[in-house]
Amino acid sequence: MEVYVCRFACRTGGGGARATVCSAMRPRLPSPAAFSPAVALALVLAATLAGCGESPSSSNGVASKSPAQIAAAATDAAAGAATVHVAGSIVSDGRPISLNMELVAGKGGQGRMTLAGLRIRLVRIYRALYINGSTAFYSLFAGEDAARALRGRWLKESAGGGALAALATVTDLSQLIDLAVADHGTLTRGPAKTIDGQRAVGLTDVAGGGTLYVARTGTPYPLEIVKRGAGKLVFDHWNQPVSLTAPANPININQLQTGH
Question: How many domains is the chain built from?
Fold first, then answer.
């Protein structure tokens, strides 16, 4: 079913970039299933994790727990965090996706993602979602003529619904942790590893073969998700200060759609 995102009624006024975009944007767009970075990310994370010694005084105790208990501890730790930085690149079904995001619990996030060569900058602050796409992204979303008018411009819409609202998933710490850590199949103990000087215990998904590494000192945060031949995602800078800033002078997608 076609999504008629760009039914613009540019009757009067709205000069400049808005008028150009209104007149140029075409109504025939891919269906949500054909292009949804959030869906693609969920598939990638599921494919990566299938869904996914210290002294007694320094150990957090997870090394002695069962794989399911370790995964639960990592999920709980991540859910209680204030901020995190997530970065990495993964290939799933021949489609590359990369992320470099700073996330703030309960507020939003900011950063960049690339999906099959389409580059996107994102900022979400509560329910306001800001998108700055490459020319290729805008061409897919709105057509080549509109893409030229939108070059370098930020778009704004509600993170709760709309043509590009699915992108908000990758700016939500809670949703990203659910996709990356909490959603998995049967786990077995994987190889141990040291990540940036911190010892970690590995959990390997029996079906998918992805390995989640959880810190075995300090708070048992997820540190890394790895799948051989498919890339990895790194979780770091837990609870470090992050300042989210709204871009100046964004183009409101709803106003473009109504022509006001």
Answer: 1
Provide mean pLDDT across the span 254-260: 61
* pTM (two decimals): 0.78
Domain that holds residue 219: 55-93+183-241
70: left (phi over 0), alpha (psi -120 to 50) or beta: alpha
**Is residue 228, in this structure, part of any structural domain at all?**
yes
Range 109-116, long-range pairs (CB < 8 A, 24+ positions): 109/170, 109/171, 109/172, 109/173, 109/244, 110/171, 110/242, 110/244, 110/245, 111/171, 113/37, 113/41, 113/170, 115/37, 115/40, 116/40
**CATH classification of the domain holding 71:** 2.50.20.20
* pLDDT tens digits for range 9-55: 232 233 444 443 434 333 333 333 444 555 555 544 544 444 444 44
